[in-house]
Every structure is written in structure tokens, then in C-alpha cells.
Amino acid sequence: MSGFFEKRRIVVTGGAGFLGKYVVEGLKKRGCKNILVPLIEEYDLVQSGDIKRMYDAMKPDIVIHLAAVVGGIGANREHPGKFFYDNLMMGVQLIEQGRQRGIEKFVAIGTVCAYPKFTPVPFKEDDIWNGYPEETNAPYGLAKKILLVQSQSYRAEYGFNSIFLLPVNLYGPGDNFNPKSSHVIPALIKKCVDAIKAGDDYIECWGSGNISREFIYAADAAEGILLATEFYNGSEPVNIGAGFEITIKDLVEKIVRLTGFKGKIRWDSSKPDGQPRRCLDTSKAKKLFGFEAKTNFDTGLKQTIEWYKKNF
Description:
alpha/beta, Rossmann fold, two-stranded parallel sheet, 10 helices, globular
């Protein structure tokens, strides 16, 4: 342990959320004594007045901005305006207020959804501007990508130390299992485990199953974010991923096997697939701040399934 975090005041927006809890735990392990989490009940970070109150009260040296309005394809299709506005206003105002107050560093968390729909695989950071994001999550992806522009322009004009990270889809214990807003792994785990309990003989899955996705265990993603917070001070975006892809069909079959569901899988091809492929080039994170994902995918899935069974 280097002692980097010990005396610094670290604000973690979204610190009570899924990824945030892993980041907070990682900070504690690193000896951080001042971890500050603005709860939504006290601070609506879409509102400039609440952001100012938060900065006044918490006086951070570093802000790790994880708070976001997120969801799967269904939630993105239902709330494109909210996903755009809330994510944009949170990030833009947090960075601006941080700049005005001269904080030491701002860590902006982007999203794999910021990449163009037809990005060559594996996604390299240089490809981020080479096209428009996949339509179902473009408002969310673009709102986050604008923070990259702000981060880079503030560094150029004001010397403001803001970095921008691009994590791939997360999963792990503590994930969001609400079917209205969950991502694919928790949604599938819930379907399989609930079908076993109910004695159902089939589950229904969206789309064709032919698209691919990459997933990173949330504890690994948190480790990548904290390594970047300590060691990376550059203007270029950096991917945070596990560096592999799996088709949704293979993912469903894997989760069916790991949960013990014995029924059939039905595909609803009237539902959208989303982006055709997703897999990140993770070489820059390894080179710049020594990050590599450690958790085996089957191991991570088993732990997530067990967590769901114990808690629901």
C-alpha cells in the first residue's frame, strides 16, 4: 500500500450503489480515512444547488463519479430523455464545480455504450469517435461521452486533472435484479432461479442470442478504477474490461447450467438485440496503471447466483 489514499478526502458519488460499494470497500482496504458518499436522500446531484452543498460540506480532494441513471435495453428505450439529461447534468456540473474549487482530481466514469454501434472488435479507445452509438442506448452513451470532451478541454484550458474511464458491462453480488431496469446477467439469473422455484418449464429471452457481450466482475472494475485514480493522470480515455466476449446464447446456456434450470429457452425475436458485438481492448489499462481483471467468469457467475439465492 502506497499511502496515496490515507489522508485524502475522497467523495464517491454513487458510493451506496452496486459498483460504489466495491469502490468504497477498496478504499477502506487501502487505508482511506475519509470516504464521503453523498446519498440521494440528501443530495440530488442533477441539481446545481445540491452539488454546491455537497462540495461545501464534504470538501473533497478527489471525486470518483460513479453515480448514474442506468438500465438495460428496456429501461433505455423507455427513458431516453431522462437517461440523457440526468447523466449529463450530474457529470457536467460536478466537473465544473470541482474545477472552480480547485480539487486535486476528478475521475469520470464513462460507459461502453459510448462506443459506435459498429466499432471493430476489440474496441480500442481511439475508435470512440468513429460513429454513432447503438440507438437503444445512444442518449445515455452520448451524455457520458460529453464528459470526455469536458474532461479533455478543462485539462487543456485550466490544467484540471480529470481522467475518463470506460468500463464494460458489470456483474457480481449486489447487482440490480429489478426486471424493469436490470442488465442481462442479473435478469437471466433471476429468470432461471425464479423459474425453478415456480416450477416453470421455460424461460423467455430477448432477441436472437447471436450478439456478443463482455462482462467484468464488479470487484475487478473497482480495482481498475482505484488503480487509475492513484496512478493515471492523462487526458486519453482508458477501457476497463476483462478482455473477452461471449454470445448471449452461450451466456444463457451457461447461466441455465449453473443455476440448474432444466426447462426450455424461448427467444423473442421481436425484442431488440442492441449493439452487435462488445469486447474491449484492455492493453492500455495494463500499460498505464497495471490493471488486469482477475476473476474467472464462471466463478464470478456462481458467486452472483449464490448471492441472489440468499437475498431474494
